[in-house]
Amino acid sequence: MFVLSELKDTVRIAPELFELKLPEAIKDEINRKLANKVLYNVGLCIALQNIVSLGDSIILPGDGASHTEVIFRYIVFRPIIGEVITGKIRSCSREGVHITLGFFDDILIPPAVLQHPSRFEETEQAWVWEYPVEDGGKHDLFMDIGENIKFRVTGEIFEEASPVGCKQSGDKSSHSGNSLATADGSKTPYRILGAINESGLGLLSWWAQENAAAEDGEDPDDDVPDEDTDNL
Asked: Could you identify which of 3, 150, 172, 190 might form a hypothetical disulfide with 38, taking C-beta atoms 3.0 to 4.6 angstroms apart as the criterion?
């Protein structure tokens, strides 16, 4: 879920910061510039890991600041395609189920990769898995806001919106992205797509009975989720 990316940038240190040691001033400036920001084809920047190398510092004509080329490693949030992650349901819409990890909210599970069959309940603003039972009926299992949900990462979408001048120092793994706009017309710089249409994925409460039985050494019924009694 978190990776180390090696990046290169020319860092500007203002004259009022010359009293600091150069490495410390550069660390502060890199974190100020990158922390909690999305770099195109890199991911969501979390924190500086270490500085790999510092080039010579130069002062440009008409600018009293120093400019130093820096190669550094940064901790980045960028899940691997196929990775299974647990988050919380932030909201539901006809677009799908929106997931949050607390520090990252732009995760979408589209309707086509929800448990089948599922429907969107307008009055509850929630997706519902119509789980079939032995007598030919079904149980409605609601995907309520705040519920813990396990999903598989199936894709990622980047919109170019990176800080000017910062680029990867090497040819690391990258994925081309497509433009994506939110409801208000603004573009989301990084969005993750997920799926839950596999046994064991979806709300953790669905599989609680099976997991508890497995821990007790019993033989639970295969792939039978708990009923969501709050919504029956």
From this structure: 190
